[in-house]
Fold:
Amino acid sequence: MEGLMDGVLPPDVETFQDVHREAECLSRLVADLQELSRVEGKAYTLARTPTNLTPLVVAVTRRLTPQFEEKGVSLVCDIPEDLPPLSLDADRISQVLINLVGNALQYTPSGGKVSVTAHLTSHHPRLPKGRWVLINVQDNGFSPQPTCPTCSTASTGWTNPVPESAAAAASG
Structure:
C-alpha cells in the first residue's frame, strides 16, 4: 500500500490483484494464529464423530493429486478398508493430512514418491498399551524431523497415532 501511496507502484489492475492476494494471505495467517491460540488455550472443541478413515484419506490424496502430477511425484495411498471407525474430527484430521502430505510433496524431488499408509496396531514403543491406528506419510526426499513426543519417523516418514479405544467408546 505504501508503494501505491508513494507513487512507486502503478495503480493498475495487476498491482491491485497483488495487494488483494497479499491481504487474503494475511487474513488466513491471522485466522490460523487465532485458531492456534484457541487450541493452546484449550478453548477449542473438536467435533468428534465415528469416522471411517479410508474415504477421508482417499479424499485428501485425490485433492492433492493434481499438484503431485504437476511436480512429477508419485502419490500412493494404501489404507485398508477394514479399519475400525475412529472417533475424530474429520475436518481437523483432513487438515493435518493435507499439511503432512503437502510437506512431503514440498520436500520430494521430481520423480520421487510419497506414500500414505495406515494400519491397526497394539504394539508401539512410544504409545501406551491399547489399540491404535497408525497413519504414516512417507517420502523419499528431505523432511524435517517431527517434534511431537508421539510421532516417530521411518526414514523421512511420519507416523501419527490415533487411539482406536476412543472410536469404540463413541460407537457405544
